[in-house]
Amino acid sequence: MCDSLVSEKNQLLKCSTTEQAHLKKAESALDQTNAKVDRLTSRLAGLQGDRNWLITNSLVGAFEYLCQSECQQTDRITPEFQENRGKLNAEMVDALEAACSDPLPTYA
To answer: Is the pTM of this model over 0.85?
Structure first.
């Protein structure tokens, strides 16, 4: 009977040790996942800042440069482009407004 109890106790200890090892692995995986989430959150904040800078500086600046360039080189512009200039300007304004107001895409 004593041998049986000792054997049962050893099995319980072995199961407990195995479960503790699994728990430690799960906790380690959770810590790694949390660290990845923190890095991605930080990167997203940086990308949002870069996007806002590009929208307010680069896109608007590029658009203004193109408009000024167009005004200075009207002899190189095709008649079709000149006919559609107003429509293109409105589309660019709409695109800039959408870029400023739309959130960055997220992935599941």
So the answer is: no
